């Protein structure tokens, strides 16, 4: 880029400077208002560990540990899939004594985020607007999942093969920082304003 072109760009930006500043400030103000009105939420994290308690008999004893680990991994995936089932989610909410209304299946079944951290370790994350609801759902979820885990995989003698060990849930209040949101929006607004200035200049020169 030649010095003449740089000078031309600098002149364009200088002329549009008031628009760029006002546009960024307007975006920041809107973002601040929206962020300040957003209610705080309670984020709950519940972790589960899948334990093999009854091993099926196999002649491949040298592969026993591998089979145990693989079975736990598949069973963990099954537990995670339960939290995407509308029927199971309904059971959890009913157990927690929380009223609900299904307006969208996708939103209803995406309340819980599940992560398989290892073959035998599951993390479930969700948010609610009150600590009481977060605690009630955490407890109800563990009750329902434990019931499902004890009956969904049984050996030839009718005993449960896996046990779901439930760890104490961690519930944290998460508040939105409106000033941080406004600062990010201000920078984004300025960048967008610069793009708009160059787009206007481009179409005007065509």
What descriptors fit this protein?
elongated; Alpha-Beta Plaits; alpha+beta; 206 residues
CATH topology of the largest domain: Alpha-Beta Plaits
Q: What is Rg?
A: 27 Å
Taken as a percent bin, the fraction of beta residues is 15-25%
- What is the count of distinct domains? 2
Number of strand elements: 5
Helical run tally? 7
Largest sheet: 5 strands, antiparallel
Give, in order, the helices and strands. HHEHHHEEHEEH
Can you tell me the CATH class of the largest domain? Alpha Beta
Mean pLDDT: 83
What helical percentage do the residues reach?
Answer: 55-70%
Distance, first to last CA: 20 Å
Large-scale geometry? elongated
Q: Which spans of ≥5 residues are poorly predicted at pLDDT below 50?
A: none
Structural class: alpha+beta
Description:
- With 206 residues, the protein is of the alpha+beta class.
- The chain has 2 domains: 65 residues, no CATH class; 134 residues, Alpha-Beta Plaits, CATH 3.30.70.
- It is built from 7 helices and 5 strands, in the order ααβαααββαββα.
- Strands 1, 2, 3, 4 and 5 form a 5-stranded antiparallel β-sheet that branches.
- A hairpin with a 2-residue loop joins strand 2 and strand 3.
- Helix 4 packs across helix 6.
- The radius of gyration is 27 Å and the shape is elongated.
- The mean pLDDT is 83.
What's this, in brief?
The chain is α+β, with helices and mostly antiparallel strands. The protein contains 7 helices and 5 strands. Strands 1, 2, 3, 4 and 5 form a 5-stranded antiparallel sheet that branches.
